[in-house]
Amino acid sequence: MTSVLRLARATWLTRPRRVALALPRMLIWALFGALPAQVAAAEAGTSCPPATAALDVGRFQDGLRQASDHGFLWRLTRDGRTSYLYGTVHAARDEWMFPGPRTAAALGASDVLALELDVLDPDILARLAASARARPDEALPPALQERIDRRMAAECIDPGPSRAYAPEFQIASLAVIAARREGFDPAYAIDVVLALLARQLGKPVVSLETPEAQMAALRLPSRAATIEFVESSLDDLDGGGAGPLIARLVRAWTEGDLAELADYGRWCECLRNDAERTAMKRLLDDRNPVIAVAIEALHARGQRVFAAVGSLHLIGPDGLPVLLALRGFQVVRVPLSR
């Protein structure tokens, strides 16, 4: 960790700082935008979550220095080389977005950082926005779209820009945004900080998927399934159920509780109907083989890979540790001190 921090300090003091300062606005806000807090609060009749704290050079260096390990880490060995598989969460507290000593050491020992999508790449971000845009045949019934708009306003997000995007994307974004009420902000996603740190260390950052493929997985196969999924998701959001569920998921991540994570399907209340079950299969099981092939291809080219993906891609018989073991990797979980 010391060598990683030393190099990061040196590069942060000499390289442009615009990426770091813009970081909190490069995720959901890049597509939807945030309303001024007082306007949103007045419209929604509620108070806004705490504002995102800007990530500057001092916070970055202090965060690395003080970070503890969270999440799940596996060592992948094949062909005489070691790569790593790391499970992340896409919303967290600000102090959790920095990699701890063992996580940073694994990144430092790797040649390339591989993420689901590298959202610090302007091309990736532009393609994500383009592929997420709604098609004419995806328009929701007016009353249902109005429910989404009200939910956006309640979370202090301008509902206007969101209407341009596919309903499934609107719902996925709302679910992450709602986590701010529990103290977990998408602006504090550790995978984005890993992308920033890898760049400062001079390591290439690659995407394991394409934005187009991710959005194809997110979209449900029929209009009826989309409407059913949106209605049930909004019921959860309006009832205040989404935030606590995300909080439970994040707790499992920060404590490294793999058994709790593996039991996600039982307690998530997200497999109650055909639309929800289809959405989960498309988002996890159907994508995992593609991600496993991409990790294997990078490793086979002689690169030591640090692959960071959402933690739900790691569980079950179709999870990445199992799939990579079937592809000939020796897969060993690395204990992380908390």
Q: Mind sketching the topology for me?
A:
Layout: H1 2-14, H2 18-22, H3 28-31, H4 37-44, H5 57-66, E1 72-78, E2 81-88, H6 101-108, E3 112-115, H7 122-132, H8 142-154, H9 159-162, H10 167-178, H11 190-200, E4 205-207, H12 211-218, H13 223-238, H14 242-255, H15 258-262, H16 264-267, H17 274-285, H18 288-300, E5 305-310, H19 320-326, E6 330-334
Parallel strand pairs: 2-5, 3-4, 3-5
Antiparallel strand pairs: 1-2, 1-6
* Structural class by secondary-structure content: alpha/beta
Number of strands: 6
Shape: globular
Beta percentage is 5-15%
Q: N-to-C terminal Cα separation, in Å?
A: 15 Å
Look at the structure and give the mean pLDDT. 84
Order of helices and strands: HHHHHEEHEHHHHHEHHHHHHHEHE
Q: How many H/I helices? A: 19
Work out the radius of gyration.
Answer: 20 Å
Number of domains as seen in the coordinates: 1
Which blocks of ≥5 consecutive residues have pLDDT under 50? 1-27, 33-44
Strand order of the largest sheet: 4-3-5-2-1-6
Could you state the oligomeric state of the chains shown? single chain
Q: Largest sheet at a glance?
A: 6 strands, mixed
Question: Helicity range of the residues?
Answer: 40-55%
